[in-house]
Every structure is written in structure tokens, then in C-alpha cells.
Amino acid sequence: MVAPLPPVICLLGPTAMGKTETAMRIADQFPVDLVSVDSALVYRGMDIGTAKPSAELLQAYPHALVDIADPESPYSVADFVHDAREAIARSHARKRIPLLVGGTMLYFKRLLEGLAALPQRDLEVRRRIDQEASESGWPALHARLAEIDAAAAARIAPTDSQRIQRALEVFELTGCTITLLQSRAAQVNEEWRVCRIALLTENRAILHERIGQRFDTMMELGFEREVEQLMSRPGVHRDLPSMRAVGYRQVAAWLDGECERDDAIRDAKTATRRLAKRQHTWLRGMSDLAVFDPLEADVNAPILNLCEEVLSTSGTPI
What we know:
Blueprint: E1 7-12, H1 19-29, E2 32-37, H2 55-60, E3 63-64, H3 77-93, E4 97-102, H4 105-113, H5 123-136, H6 138-148, H7 150-155, H8 161-174, H9 178-185, E5 193-199, H10 204-220, H11 223-231, H12 248-255, H13 261-284, E6 289-292, H14 300-312
Parallel strand pairs: 1-4, 1-5, 2-3, 2-4, 5-6
Helix pairs in contact: 1-14, 3-4, 5-6, 5-8, 6-8, 10-13, 11-12, 12-13
């Protein structure tokens, strides 16, 4: 008899959908190890603007891949895949179930489908692209990307400088689009039995209200001081991936005198809503997804039932 593949549970969803709270309820019931799938939570010192769980919650509910990098040091998708695979292996070795929770959809995709054979960063090419962006603006470079790689341009926002730069860099270095190279890496995962759970609502008005309220709370908690402290550190500048995170780049622009405080808050909320929309689009394109509306009463009950089913068929003691 062939042994079942070791299970991995993925809990995905747009920002402000209550993923952390649901993950903690699952951890209360089952032998799971929490693994963060968030491109901003990896950075130390970025707490308020990332809605990072408090130190007390992290002590009660430990998350792998939280606070593992300094903002001065870029953390790549490849770094995440390496670290996440190690965390999953450790969990399985302990006869427990990895529960991957977060909203960085690219991280989920590359972990489950494989990394593309992309070239290393080229500083000279990047400097040239940055210079063009400073002269023409990132939307203009996004339009150029659309001519080269329409699929990539469709999933990358015209203001997402980091991903526009990378897509153009890859094309210049290889002559192939990033979409083509990534598609060659796509594969069905045959190492784990993956259960995908999504917290997703069609009520955009309530989601947008949550996003606005959460950002107002962040400002009350001292988000602007957090950004100011980060920007005062040697080696931290606004072009780093860490400081390009939603909210951080808008507040940093205000602190640098490029806009008024109210404008920065408005722009941060707008950027967060756009992020949620992109996350929603990613999720709608995923297969084998169990979708639950977090706005429904007692939504955790069916999620816990699904987790119990996963564990009962894996041989893991419940």
C-alpha cells in the first residue's frame, strides 16, 4: 500500500480578511505549524504597517518566516521558496502539519509550482531601467512591458516599479519574456497533498471599509514614527523592496516632503485596495480552492471541519 503524501494546508486571502485569526483557531484545534507567506512580515522592524501579530501572539502562536531579514537586505521569491521548504520539512519531521498562511500570492505560486530559471539581478541593467523610469515614469515602462509581454503587464500594476523592473530586466538579459520562463517551471506538486483554503468575499464595500479602518488604526499606533525610524537607518532607502511595501512607500513620500499627510493616507488606502483586488484576481485563477466568506457567521466551523478531514486522511493524530 502506497503511503499518502504528507499534507500541507494553505490559508490564503486578500489583506484585511482575518487570515491570522483563522490560522490561530486552526492551531487551537490541530497539530499544525504556522508558516508565514508574506513578503513584508519577513522584515524586522516593520511591525505596524504590516499588521504583524504582536510579540505576545507570536509567542503563543509561533510563525516561521517572520522577522528573519533586515529591511536593508532584499528578500527574494527564491529565498522564500528555500526557507518555506525547510519549514515544511521540519514540520513533517515532527509528525505535524504545515499551515501556510498569508497573502503574497506569488510566493504561494512559486512554492507550489516551482521556480523559473530566471537570470540573476544585473545592477547595470537595473540602473538603466531606473533612469528611464525617472525620465518617463513607471506607467510608461509598464506600457512598454505590455508590448513585450501582455500577460505580465495584465497582472502587474502600472505603479509596481519592482515587478515592472524585473520583467523588463529579464527580457533584456534573456530575450524571453518572464511569463514564458515562469510557465516552463510550472508543474504539479507531487511532494505534498495540498489543501487550499481561501478567505474571500464579494462584498467589496465592507472589505474597503476594513482596509480604511485598519490603516487609520496603524496611524494611531505610530506608523509614521516606524517609517521615520526605518528611513533613518544607514542603508535603508525608498528603492529597497522592503520600503516599496504598500503603506510604507506612501508614508515615506510624505516624510520626504513630496506630498501632504492626508494625501499619503489617501494614497496608501487606495494602494491597499488595489492590492486586495490583485489578490482577489490571483485567487479566482487558482484551482482546487475551498472558498469561505469570512463575513459569514461562524465561518471557522466549516474550515475546521475541512482541516479535520485533511488530518484524518493523512494519518496525523488529531
